[in-house]
């Protein structure tokens, strides 16, 4: 696709604008995964902070999109070919430090895909009454099919899933907030109780949250390569769009769960699946139907983008050099990471998000977020 071909259109929209939106949707679709759809992620990192959780989530999305923006700009500006080269460029003259990202990435991919699998097992079993193993196989098969045909398919799939997810979550969360009708009371009570005591914790959670979301960086580089050679700040525009999408969706999710915290917080099952528990208490069948669609899309979207990040890293490695067919090569890598993640998912969704995501997030603050927002900005501007 020629990003600068303004006169060419797709669905009546200039292809340059579609490219910007599609890359923005990749990050949104990756973020809107199993932890997001179940509400477990929001509850763990933001809801417990009260009113300062709103500040925290906005800061988290700002840090995430700015990090991805600088990473894509550096990748395209210096014509780099892999995220290994990117981190060598970022850390130069300490090139060998790029191994730190490799460690973070490998662990976080397993955690992210495991969260999608665990979310499928927990939610689909309760929501649709499906067999645990059937749910895993179905989600795994969809992820496998969408990750073996390259960045173009991932970008298109993420665009369509992103649009559908955004549409669904807007309906679910806005209706949920209006039905609760107590947002002002909850915020006032939270501020009266906590004051500014939770603000330092909110800032820390923002960095941690943005940190573990950086697992999608290799996927963003592969999809953002479409902007290579473009001089219209397309990377920045795409991340501005992504910031708006992610902040609106996450903000509405957190606000709704704050309003219904007393409902889902009274049981262990409710704490694992806050959104599902909340919607059940509303007794609105059509909302449950929309949530079912959203849940499946969210589980699939994160699984696809994260697994593809792993595939794009290893598909050209020496280990698979004897497999000439690229589709078979990607299939083997995807199958490996999906099976491994299925095993990890047995520890449960809450433990994966609280401990697996948490510790990976701490590491990413030091090796991804801060370096790109300091050294990365300097090197990009200097170039």
From TrEMBL:
Subcellular location: Membrane
Single GO molecular function: transmembrane transporter activity
Membrane-spanning intervals of the chain: 12-33, 45-64, 99-124, 130-153, 160-177, 206-227, 239-264, 284-311, 332-353, 359-378
Protein name: Uncharacterized protein
High-level lineage: Bacteria, Bacillati, Bacillota, Bacilli, Lactobacillales
Main location: membrane
UniProt family annotation: Belongs to the sodium:solute symporter (SSF) (TC 2.A.21) family.
Keyword Hydrolase: no
């Amino acid at each position: 696709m020629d990003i600068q071909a303004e006169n060419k259109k797709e669905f009546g929209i200039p292809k340059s604008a579609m490219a910007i939106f599609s890359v923005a949707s990749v990050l949104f679709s990756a973020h809107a995964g199993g932890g997001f759809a179940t509400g477990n992620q929001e509850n763990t990192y933001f809801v417990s902070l009260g009113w300062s959780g709103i500040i925290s989530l906005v800061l988290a999305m700002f840090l995430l999109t700015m990090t991805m923006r600088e990473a894509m700009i550096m990748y395209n500006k210096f014509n780099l070919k892999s995220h290994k080269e990117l981190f060598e460029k970022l850390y130069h003259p300490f090139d060998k430090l790029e191994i730190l990202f490799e460690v973070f990435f490998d662990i976080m991919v397993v955690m992210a895909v495991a969260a999608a699998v665990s979310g499928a097992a927990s939610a689909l079993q309760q929501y649709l009454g499906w067999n645990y193993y059937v749910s895993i196989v179905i989600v795994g098969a969809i992820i496998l099919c969408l990750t073996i045909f390259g960045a173009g398919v991932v970008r298109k799939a993420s665009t369509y899933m992103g649009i559908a997810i955004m549409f669904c979550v807007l309906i679910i969360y806005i209706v949920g907030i209006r039905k609760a009708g107590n947002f002002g009371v909850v915020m006032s009570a939270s501020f009266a109780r906590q004051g500014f005591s939770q603000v330092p914790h909110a800032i820390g959670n923002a960095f941690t949250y943005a940190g573990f979301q950086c697992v999608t960086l290799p996927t963003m580089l592969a999809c953002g390569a479409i902007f290579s050679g473009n001089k219209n700040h397309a990377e920045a525009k795409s991340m501005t769009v992504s910031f708006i999408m992610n902040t609106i969706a996450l903000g509405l999710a957190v606000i709704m769960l704050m309003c219904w915290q007393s409902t889902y917080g009274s049981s262990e099952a409710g704490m694992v699946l806050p959104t599902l528990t909340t919607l059940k208490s509303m007794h609105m069948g059509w909302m449950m139907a929309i949530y079912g669609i959203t849940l499946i899309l969210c589980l699939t979207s994160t699984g696809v983008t994260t697994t593809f990040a792993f595939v794009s890293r290893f598909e050209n490695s020496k280990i698979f050099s004897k497999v000439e067919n690229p589709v078979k090569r990607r299939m083997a890598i995807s199958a490996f990471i999906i099976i491994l993640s299925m095993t990890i998912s047995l520890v449960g969704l809450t433990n994966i998000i609280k401990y697996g995501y948490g510790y990976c997030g701490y590491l990413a603050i030091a090796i991804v977020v801060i370096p790109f927002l300091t050294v990365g900005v300097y090197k990009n501007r200097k170039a």
